[in-house]
């Protein structure tokens, strides 16, 4: 069953269409050159898209109870890790790219969430940029996030493993490493809907 979050800001939607920006998500298979985002960090992106006000995403619970994707990716220190390394506490995994406008808009909200819930939740953002750290580290340096760390997956293993075909895609796992739900597309992670969705799992652990 897929539930849709919809916020009827018609004027903003028209504006985004005029600007040629896909607010909801970016197609993983589209070329990066064709989707290079005008903003260079989350603050600049927010000047174009009003953060969180017209975020649309699809809540998907069809994979509930399935195990974590087993692909490997790179930690900030260059070591190889897997999602299973984080079992023991609920884990929110977000796949994104520096060329994806909606992904960039989500980042400060995910950073806020990571800071506010760090005792109960690990927030992991994993870039799918094929250039890896070369592209991602400068973005993080400009953005000065409080909690988020620059994990990278230049082979796009998580993207293919999740199978959504779009970014951002965000998956919540419980403390035992089982999927609870996923949001396909961008979402207002500062909002009440996100808090309600997370609370059921966080309250159990």
In CATH, the topology is named: Glutaredoxin
CATH superfamily: Glutaredoxin
**What strand line-up does the widest sheet have?**
1-3-11-10-6-7-8
- Proportion of β residues? 15-25%
| DSSP summary, beta strand count | 11
Overall geometric form: globular
**Level of helix content?**
25-40%
Mean pLDDT: 82
The biggest beta sheet reads:
7 strands, mixed
Number of helices, where a helix is a run of at least 4 consecutive DSSP H or I residues: 6
CATH class membership: Alpha Beta
Describe this structure in words.
This protein has 205 residues and is an alpha+beta fold. The chain has one domain (2-204): Glutaredoxin, CATH 3.40.30.10. The chain has 6 helices and 11 strands. A 7-stranded mixed β-sheet has the order 1-3-11-10-6-7-8. Strands 2-9 form a two-stranded antiparallel ribbon. The chain has a two-stranded antiparallel ribbon with strand order 4-5. A hairpin with a 5-residue loop joins β10 and β11. It starts with a strand and ends with a helix. Mean pLDDT is 82; it is low at 1-22, 31-42 and 44-53.
Structure in a nutshell:
With 205 residues, the chain is of the alpha+beta class. The chain has helices at residues 10-19, 42-48, 101-116, 133-143, 157-162, 192-204, and strands at residues 2-5, 26-27, 57-60, 72-74, 80-82, 91-96, 122-127, 151-152, 166-167, 169-173, 179-185. Strands 1-3-11-10-6-7-8 form a 7-stranded mixed sheet. Strands 2-9 form a two-stranded antiparallel sheet. A two-stranded antiparallel sheet has the order 4-5.
């Amino acid at each position: 069953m897929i539930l849709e979050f919809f916020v009827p800001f018609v004027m903003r939607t028209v504006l985004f269409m005029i600007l040629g920006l896909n607010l909801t998500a970016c197609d993983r298979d589209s070329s990066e050159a064709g989707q290079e985002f005008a903003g260079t960090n989350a603050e600049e992106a927010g000047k174009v898209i009003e953060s969180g006000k017209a975020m649309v995403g699809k809540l998907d619970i069809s994979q509930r109870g399935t195990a974590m994707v087993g692909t490997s990716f790179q930690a900030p220190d260059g070591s190889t890790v897997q999602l299973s390394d984080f079992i023991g506490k609920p884990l929110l995994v977000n796949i994104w790219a520096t060329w994806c406008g909606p992904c960039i808009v989500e980042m400060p909200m995910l950073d806020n969430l990571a800071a506010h819930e760090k005792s109960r939740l690990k927030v992991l953002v994993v870039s799918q940029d094929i250039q890896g750290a070369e592209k991602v580290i400068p973005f993080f340096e400009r953005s000065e996030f409080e909690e988020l760390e620059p994990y990278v997956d230049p082979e796009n293993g998580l993207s293919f493993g999740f199978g959504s075909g779009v970014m951002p895609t965000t998956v919540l796992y419980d403390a035992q490493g089982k999927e609870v739900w996923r949001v396909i597309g961008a979402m207002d992670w500062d909002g009440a809907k996100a808090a309600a969705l997370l609370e059921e799992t966080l309250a159990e652990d």
